[in-house]
Specification:
Layout (H helix, E strand, L loop, with lengths): L3 E4 L6 H8 L2 H5 L2 E5 L8 H9 L5 E4 L2 H11 L10 H8 L2 H8 L4 E4 L2 E4 L16 H7 L9 E4 L6 E5 L2 E5 L13 E6 L2 E6 L4 H11 L5 H8 L6 H12 L2
Helix pairs in contact: 4-5, 4-6
C-alpha cells in the first residue's frame, strides 16, 4: 500500500506549505499528491519552486485556478478575474512555470484511488459534504467501477464520507482553510484516511507574506485569509447555490 499525503488548494501561501511539508508523516509519505489550485496566491513563484524541488515524489493535478493562471499569463482569459490576486500572480510566473501548469492532468489514478481538484469530470464543479447521494451520483457518472476512493479539494473544507460504497475525501486547503484554522491536508494509508491540520502561527505567517511578497493587496489578503478564518457554516451557505447542479 502506497502512503499518500494529499495537499490541496495551496494557493501560493508559502508559510502554510512549508508547515505541511514539515510534518513527519508528509516527509515519510511515498507520494505527495497536489490536488490543484497550487499557485494562485501571494507567493506563486516561490511555491512552485519549492514543490518542483521535491522531485518525482510529487504527483501534480491541475485545478481551476491553475488553468486560469495559464490563460491569464498567455492573454487568453476573457472572463472577469475571480479575485484580485490571480492576475497579479499570473504576471509573476516564469515561462517554465506557465508551461508546467499548462501540462498538468486534471485527474490522476493511483491504484483504486482517483485524485482530482473539484470532481472527476470538471475542475470547478461544486459538491459539498452534505450534497445528496443523487448529486454525487450525477458527478460520478462514467467513473470506472474499480475507482473505490475519490480524493478532491476545491471547497477548502475537509471531510470524508461514503457515497454508494465509494469513499470520498476532501483534503481541505493548505493555504486558505475554511471551517477551522490551520493548513489542512489528508493522509491515505492502508488503514484508511486521516484528516490532518498542521500547526501554523498565523501572525508570523502574515508578517512573512507582507515582507516577502510584492502583491500590492497583501495586507488585505492576509487579513482575510490568514488572520481570519471563515467557518464551515459560512462557506457552506456561500457555496450551496453552486452545488445544487
Amino acid at each position: 500500500m502506497t502512503t499518500v499525503a494529499v495537499l490541496a488548494d495551496v494557493h501560493g501561501v508559502l508559510p502554510a506549505l512549508e508547515a505541511v511539508l514539515g510534518e513527519a508523516d508528509v516527509q515519510a509519505a511515498d507520494l505527495i499528491v497536489l490536488a490543484g489550485d497550487i499557485a494562485s496566491g501571494p507567493q506563486p513563484v516561490e511555491t512552485l519552486d519549492l514543490l518542483t524541488g521535491l522531485g518525482e515524489r510529487v504527483v501534480w493535478v491541475r485545478g481551476n485556478a491553475d488553468r486560469e493562471l495559464v490563460e491569464m499569463a498567455r492573454g487568453t482569459y476573457s472572463a472577469e478575474p475571480p479575485d484580485a490576486v490571480s492576475p497579479w500572480a499570473a504576471g509573476q510566473l516564469r515561462e517554465d512555470q506557465v508551461e508546467l501548469l499548462a501540462g498538468l492532468p486534471t485527474t490522476v489514478t493511483v491504484g483504486d484511488v482517483l485524485f482530482c481538484h473539484a470532481t472527476p469530470r470538471d475542475d470547478e464543479e461544486m459538491v459539498l459534504v452534505d450534497s445528496p447521494i443523487s448529486r454525487w451520483a450525477q458527478v460520478f457518472t462514467g467513473l470506472p467501477d474499480d475507482v473505490r476512493t475519490v480524493v478532491c479539494g476545491h471547497t477548502h473544507m475537509p471531510f470524508a464520507r461514503q457515497v454508494d460504497r465509494r469513499l470520498v475525501v476532501n483534503a481541505g486547503s493548505v493555504g486558505m482553510p475554511y471551517g477551522a484554522p490551520g493548513p489542512s491536508w489528508a493522509l491515505l494509508t492502508e488503514n484508511g484516511v486521516q484528516l490532518r491540520r498542521a500547526p501554523l502561527d498565523a501572525t508570523r505567517a502574515a508578517a512573512r507574506i507582507e515582507s516577502e511578497s510584492t502583491y500590492p493587496g497583501r495586507p488585505e489578503w492576509v487579513a482575510e485569509y490568514l488572520l481570519h478564518n471563515y467557518s464551515d457554516t459560512e462557506a457552506l451557505e456561500a457555496f450551496r447555490p453552486r452545488a445544487e447542479g
